[in-house]
Hints:
It is a single chain. By secondary structure, the protein is mainly beta. Helices cover about 5% and strands about 35% of the residues. It has helices at about 100-110, 120-125, 135-145, and strands spanning about 35-40, 50-55, 65, 75-80, 85-90, 160-165, 180-185, 195-200, 220-225, 230, 235-240, 250-255, 260-270, 280, 290-300, 305-310, 315-320, 325, 330-335, 340-350, 360, 375, 380-390, 395-405, 405-410. The strands form 6 sheets. Strands 9, 11, 12, 13, 14, 15, 16, 18, 19 and 20 form a 10-stranded mixed β-sheet that branches. A 4-stranded mixed β-sheet has the order 4-1-8-6. A hairpin with a 7-residue loop joins strand 14 and strand 15. Helix 1 packs antiparallel against helix 3 (about 135-145).
Amino acid sequence: MQGNSDFCTVKLHVQDNNNTCGLDANGGGPSQRINISGNVFQSNMMPMEDIDIQLNADLPEFPLSKSTNLDGNFVFSNLAKDNDYIVNPILNKDHDNGVSTLDLVLIQRHILGIEFLNSPYKVIASDVTNDMKVNTLDLVELRKVILGVQDEFSNNNSWRFAETSQTMDPKFPFPFIEKMKMSKLDYSIGGIDFIGVKVGDVNESVKMNAKSNEVDTRSVTSLSQNKITGKAGEIVEVTIGSEEIQKLFGWQMSLYLPAEIGSFEDIYSNTLRLGEDNVAWNQSDAGILNISWNSQNETDLVSDAITIKVKLNKDINNTQLLGLLDGGLNPEIYTQEGNTVKAKPFRFTSSETVLEEFELFQNVPNPFSGKTTIGFHLPQESDVTITVYDVTGKVLLTQSAFYLSLIHISEPTRPY
């Protein structure tokens, strides 16, 4: 009612987590506890989230660990003064993230002095073998990870971290400071910042968010694939190439051949120096062939640049046999543009096949957990929806896309 009033007493407890006021825990006098904080960025200054930051000290409760937040920031609070501390960022997973045959091309051009890498971070990324050198051994090690022959670098983490206050020679930044050491620290300190470098990724194409749905807006180049007619048991030759592509320095792709159609027998080229180290056969039993080729010299493609021998498991009539694996190596060619080499995505020219029916091939592996390869053939271009169910009929994943009239492959992935 009008004229009535009352009051209450409220106590607020304000916490200064970063010790901005420089007071002790009771709010008076110099603090006996300190904080250490900093940030982690990529070389393009994008913050890096969920990076493990380890803080070491010669004390019983150490090491301590924190993860960077959305802004790439980390804070270690309430630390004892007058101790030696070491801050060390660590990330060692997904070694193949961001690496491609284009990185091989660019590193090779750097080694040969044709086109030098333009930042110390790119030179650090090139040192795949972690020996403070950039040479052909780095190319060999990197190609093994690109092809999937090995999952990790033999003598390196997937990420290196350079402390930002140091001065680095852009041509030879080795050795560089990767851990921040502080002796007898008696005050709170910020600005302990690091630049994260993805090893092997010199064109800086790494995706920090594996679930990113970024759309590739680059124009797509078409490569030809011949159509095959043959009987079950015969060995036929599939040729891939183009008469229109010039100044080629590299090429990568993951080919897929459904087991119902045939199996890979051999691969060769009369125009490209395609050796054993350019092809990974470790997934050929699942119908997958990974190819990564590059050269220091430019090459003009021909229509039969690469020939793949296939043993047929069924009768085939006027049909393209091979597809590009969705989820494998990005199908790309690398050509000269001006003074540098750039990537161009490609696809196979649509087949005028006489097959008139949709065909779904057996997924590999089956059964599976988390990831499988599904092949299918379309008689004509169409929208396609793939739905994955569990044994109870529950929908686990739905994936839709537009496809041309070819053999296609999808690799739906989901943590089940």
